[in-house]
Amino acid sequence: MKTSKNKLLKTIGIPLLILGVLLFGISRQQLPVDTTQSAIIKANREDIWEIATDFEGAFENSNPAHRGTEILSEPKQPFWDSLRFYQKEKVGGITAELDGTVYDVNESRSFRWKAKTIYYFLGMEIPVDEGGTFRIEETTDKGYRVSHRIYGNFKDTFGGRTLSWLMESCFGMLQSASEHTLVELEYFKEQLEG
């Protein structure tokens, strides 16, 4: 009888101990997403601005992972501080819905955005604070360096840290976000350069 208890403890206890150590380690460190992509686009600054800020048109079409982008504010144009938008997309195969706001608009040069985002993963709704900075900068080459920095922060809780680790470790969220952003910039380049 004692042997079967020892065997049961080893069978269940060791995996539980390993799981506990992993969860403890995971929960101690948050893995935020923060990436910047850029492309040199040989077009005039105003045309780049126009395509990048056409959220319901060119921006929606810039990535097949976009599943709907809508300006919620009126008027929809020109692009302005406090403009609200909604977007549904997939990043790394995971569906996300963003409720966002544009701010720090510097026409034909840059804008920032922030969003309350919900990722739908294994039946869970995972809230993430996301944002980004879009820039059009002069270069020594012909054209402009167009960059988009994006970031995402999970809640600083045990659950948030665990989910951030899981989504990065198992689904490569940082790499997926980086590739997603580059696809958008390459689309702008292709549309403007022909």
UniProtKB/TrEMBL annotation:
Highest taxon of the lineage: Bacteria
InterPro entries in alphabetical order: START-like_dom_sf
Name used for this protein in its record: Polyketide cyclase / dehydrase and lipid transport
Organism encoding this protein: Cyclobacterium lianum
Lineage: Bacteria, Pseudomonadati, Bacteroidota, Cytophagia, Cytophagales
